[in-house]
């Protein structure tokens, strides 16, 4: 019997009901799954000495120390896309496969980004808050602009960025520009995408939507210097990772009038502090790291969590698409690698 542990049971992105369903399916596959919640790397080390697999529903600290001090560890499985809390270099050195789930919530992310944009442009949240306070804010707030006359900048042109491109270019008739130094040339040509530099995107966009991963290169790429280059009527949307934006700089940029709007699903520290000035700002729309949430995404998440782990442990195969540290595959001679 293999041993597996979900180390952040209470994170909130996967319900306890679904975790228990996965547990039952694992048992049928010869895997004993424990549902635990550890807050530190030390707790993970102490609680997972027998673990062949560690699963993270959120971003647990799978650090160098964790990987080096779990003697049986073969696999780390994320329930989502980001792997910024996992030491991929150490995992690769130790022959530990790290799997994630790219593409499991493409539509949800794109639709959520669009919802935040429309909310802010049409003053939906502003009117809603007013009515709840007993204020009839009829035709108040900033005059909504026509999306056909606006330029949408997309930072990161992965699957969710590409779908947002279709929504605004084809659906609303907006001009859409893209900043992504790693864009696939075949996709660029087939979709007739206008690719610009980071500075050009900042200068020319009325709306910027972030769809890039958090890496050392992208951390705090949206800082006060970047916001000063944006239009003072512009909007920033983030459904990716909180660390791409320097949150203090964003708060200052909004207060100073460097930009006008922000729609945020993710934050540098979660949950967001109740004392954050973002909460009282009428030009900010906030959601609680739930852009991934949806019926189809949930089904994809559960299906992948069951299949991917079973493949590695019992079928000695791995789907390359879902491996975050692909160099680790060079260490295995008897593993069937599926493209």
UniProtKB/TrEMBL annotation:
Alphabetically ordered keywords of this record: NAD, Oxidoreductase
Species, as recorded: Clostridium ljungdahlii (strain ATCC 55383 / DSM 13528 / PETC)
UniProt key word Magnesium: no
Source species, domain of life: Bacteria
SUPFAM superfamilies: Formate/glycerate dehydrogenase catalytic domain-like, NAD(P)-binding Rossmann-fold domains
EC number in record: 1.1.1.95
Molecular function per GO: NAD binding; phosphoglycerate dehydrogenase activity; transcription corepressor activity
Name of the protein in question: D-3-phosphoglycerate dehydrogenase
Alphabetized Pfam families for the sequence: 2-Hacid_dh, 2-Hacid_dh_C
PROSITE patterns: D_2_HYDROXYACID_DH_2, D_2_HYDROXYACID_DH_3
Domain D-isomer specific 2-hydroxyacid dehydrogenase NAD-binding: 115-291
Cited InterPro entries: CtBP (IPR043322), D-2-hydroxyacid_DH (IPR050857), D-isomer_2_OHA_DH_cat_dom (IPR006139), D-isomer_DH_CS (IPR029753), D-isomer_DH_NAD-bd (IPR006140), NAD(P)-bd_dom_sf (IPR036291)
Family indicated by similarity: Belongs to the D-isomer specific 2-hydroxyacid dehydrogenase family.
Taxonomy of the source species: Bacteria, Bacillati, Bacillota, Clostridia, Eubacteriales
D-isomer specific 2-hydroxyacid dehydrogenase catalytic domain mapped to chain residues: 19-317
């Amino acid at each position: 019997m293999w041993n597996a542990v979900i180390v952040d049971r209470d994170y909130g992105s996967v319900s306890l009901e679904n975790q228990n369903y996965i547990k039952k399916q694992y048992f049928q596959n010869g895997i004993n799954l424990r549902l635990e919640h550890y807050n530190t790397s030390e707790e993970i080390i102490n609680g997972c000495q027998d673990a062949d697999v560690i699963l993270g529903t959120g971003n647990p600290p799978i650090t160098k120390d964790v990987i080096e001090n779990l003697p049986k560890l073969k696999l780390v499985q994320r329930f989502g896309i980001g792997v910024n809390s996992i030491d991929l270099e150490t995992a690769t050195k130790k022959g530990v496969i790290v799997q994630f789930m790219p593409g499991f919530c493409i539509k949800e992310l794109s639709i959520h980004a669009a919802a935040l944009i429309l909310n802010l442009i049409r003053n939906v949240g502003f009117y809603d808050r007013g009515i709840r306070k007993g204020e009839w804010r009829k035709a108040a707030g900033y005059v909504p602009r026509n999306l056909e006359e606006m330029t949408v900048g997309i930072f990161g042109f992965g699957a969710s960025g590409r779908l947002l491109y279709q929504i605004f270019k084809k659906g609303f008739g907006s001009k859409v520009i893209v900043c992504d130094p790693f864009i696939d040339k075949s996709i660029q040509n087939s979709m007739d995408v206008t690719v610009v530099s980071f500075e050009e995107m900042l200068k020319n966009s009325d709306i910027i939507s972030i769809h890039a991963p958090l890496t050392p290169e992208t951390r705090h790429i949206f800082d006060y210097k970047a916001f000063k280059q944006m239009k003072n009527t512009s909007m920033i949307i983030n459904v990716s990772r909180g660390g791409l934006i320097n949150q203090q700089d964003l708060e200052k940029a909004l207060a100073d009038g460097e930009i006008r709007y922000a729609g945020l699903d993710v934050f540098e520290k979660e949950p967001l502090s109740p004392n954050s000035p973002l909460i009282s700002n009428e030009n900010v729309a906030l959601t609680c790291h739930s852009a991934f949430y949806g019926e189809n995404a949930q089904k994809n998440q559960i299906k992948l969590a069951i299949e991917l782990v079973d493949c590695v442990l019992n079928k000695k195969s791995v789907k390359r698409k879902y491996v975050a540290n692909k160099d680790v595959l060079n260490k295995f001679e008897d593993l069937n690698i599926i493209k």
